Amino acid sequence: MFILETKGLSKIYGSKGKGVTVKALDDFSMNVKEGEFVGVMGPSGSGKTTLLNILATIDSPTSGEVLINGKNPHRLDEDELALFRRKNLGFIFQDFNLLDTLSVKENIILPLVLEGKGQKEIEKKAMDMAKILNIEEILNKRTYEISGGQQQRTACARALINDPSIILADEPTGNLDSKASMDLMEALETINEKRRATIVMVTHDAFAASFCNRIVMIKDGKFYLELVKSSSRQVFFKEILDGLSLIGGGYNETI
Fold this sequence. Notes:
Blueprint: E1 2-15, E2 20-33, E3 37-41, H1 48-55, E4 63-68, H2 78-88, E5 89-92, H3 104-114, H4 119-132, H5 148-160, E6 166-170, H6 178-195, E7 199-202, H7 206-209, E8 214-219, E9 222-228, H8 233-247
Parallel strand pairs: 3-7, 3-8, 5-6, 6-7
Antiparallel strand pairs: 1-2, 1-4, 8-9
């Protein structure tokens, strides 16, 4: 079953009247099955951030369509879209986007509070998430009292706590050191394997990408190459580096 389908997505920025346009996506299509962990990579300006913004309903395609659980969120009105996001989408951002006025635990449970869930369910899910992400000991701390890696794992817990259909991650290791990056990616891998969480991650980091099951590479707004993990993560890492050398984007290149 496909959780996510994109069909012939194109995105044009600019004014045709002024003759200045940029085609960020060009007839791009991809599908993601339930339980997959898919990485999206490409050189600067390739369209990967535009793609993620469209999937996240932050932006709309110029043409083509997005289906999440068979429904096109871009055809919903504002109220329907807000409800759709809460039930179907989880977000992990490079900059964490946590609320400093709340504790770690309060940040994590916020989606469930907004849904009006009962206290027992909220407590159980919070502790389950904290255990998986190894942040049980910091639940009562404020976000400014914990490390960047702990903040990102807190953001992951918040994204996952209401069991969304799909997690969208935007450069989740971008602000982390190598140890924190390893901890985060191992946690996402565990969540993917044990909870069958479906994850789509945009990244320029070949190391982070090596934790995925599949990599989709974009160049000039078009599908360019697909890599599927068939053996060890170390072998997949090398294959990703080889793919990036073909596409013209170094693995340490920022968006």
